Structure formats: structure tokens, C-alpha cells
Amino acid sequence: MTDVFLPHDLDELWSLLNTKPEAVLYAGGTDLLVKRRSGLIDPPSLVCLERIQELKGIRQYGDWIFVGALTTHSQLLCHPIIKNDYQVLNQAIAVLGSPPVRNMGTIGGNIVTASPAGDTLAPWYVLDAEIEIRSQSTSRRVPISSFIVGPGQVDLRPGEILAGVWTKSPQVFHIQHYEKIGRRNALACSVVSMAALMNISEDNYISEIRLAWGSVGPTVMRFREIENFLVGRPLTPKGLEDAIRKVQQSVIPIDDIRASANYRREVAGRLLLRLIGYTPYR
Fold this sequence. Notes:
Helix content is about 30%, strand content about 25%. The chain is α+β, with helices and mostly antiparallel strands. Helix 11 packs antiparallel against helix 12.
């Protein structure tokens, strides 16, 4: 039988982790409890974090915001800062799972699960998000691209927790876009996803762009060389042709039950064409 503990604050949590270092932490449990029910994991004890208020909510500090790890997807989706300023993240959360999953699942859980198909991950990558990691005695911040090291693998040391996410406002970008391709229109795990932040000039040339793809490699993939290549190019099908090929040559997808590697490769490049619809200069 698995013991379940519910600390009320961080002091209680640190005490538990000192006495039960083998315990597995969770919040909404939308991933972990499914694995446990399926027999994929059988931890000796569980620590539920849902009562720790210090790790909840969204707080603004100048150009930065901090999103507590225990903030649910539904709370993010309806928060005015996320709705108004972080549309790329808002768009991703809107197609994440079902309402019950969004009500229970937390942003920290989605990140720690480290699935290449995680809906919020590509937006966090283009937002240059930083992960705050805490232990009883220390705190550190690392880029999300360093925190996620592989499928289901993150840079958390014994006694550490993911406390939240820091990111700067993307308001300097006039265009924010997220799209995922799945096997159906709702409640689908992504086959390919793409997040983008972009500015264009009045004559329809790309002046700045950030791009990240999900489900096309072991982690979210961002290609700075392709971003640099696109700057100064017209936002037209012809102007994107070479970049599409570069994306298709750079991604490293796999075949699985949801899609073939070739399909993912083709779609990953062609998702760039979706950006054309954002400009009237066509």
C-alpha cells in the first residue's frame, strides 16, 4: 500500500523529503496517477503538493512574470496577463487535454513530465522561459532548454523541486502563434506542434522571429540558424520555401502509433506557412 502525504507548506515538504527521499511528488496527478494505475510505476510513498500556496499563482515583476508550479492550466487560461500578453501560451493551453484535465493539471507537472508532445513546452521555449528550482537550502534558475534533458528527463537533483517558471513579456512581438496537429480536433496528443513569435515590416519582410517545434525530436527543438536565416525574407510561400526544407532536414522525428516520421517531417516544415495568414501584406 502506498502512503500519501499532503504537506501544507514548504517547511513541511522539506521535512518530508528529508525523511522520505524515495517519495514521488505530484500535484494534479493527471500523468502520474494514470501511470500508477497502469502498473508502470509503484512508488512506496507519494507527496501531494496541492495545498502549498507558495507555489501557486501568477505574479508580475516589471517585465517578468513568475508562474507558480502548482498553477493549473485553467487558472492560466483565464488569467488576464496570460490572455492579453502571452497569447502563444494561451493558445497552447486552450487545446491541452479536456476541461477536467486543465482544471487538475498544473504547469509544473506539464514541464516535469518532459514529454516532447507537451503542449506548453514549445511556447515556453520561444518565450525563453527560465525554471526556478528550489531545495531546502538553495534556489537556482536554468533555461528550460537546459532543464529538460530528454524524454521524461529533467535536471532535478535529490531534494529539489520545480518551484515555478520565469519569463519576460513577449509584447515586443506583434505576432504570436501556436498550432498543433493531432489525429483529431480535440483531446488529442500532438503529432507535431509549432510555437512562433514574430515581427514583420510594413513591406511584409520578417524582421524578428523565434520558432520551436514539439513531437519532432527527443525534446522540443528550436533552430537558431533557421530563425537567423528567415530574418529579412518575405513572408510569402516563395520566401519560406528554403526554410521549410531546412526545418524538414533538421528535425529528427520517430515513427509511432500516431504518425510516421516522414509525415511529421513534412508537416513540421509546412507549419511555417500558417504564419502567412497573420499579415495583410500579401
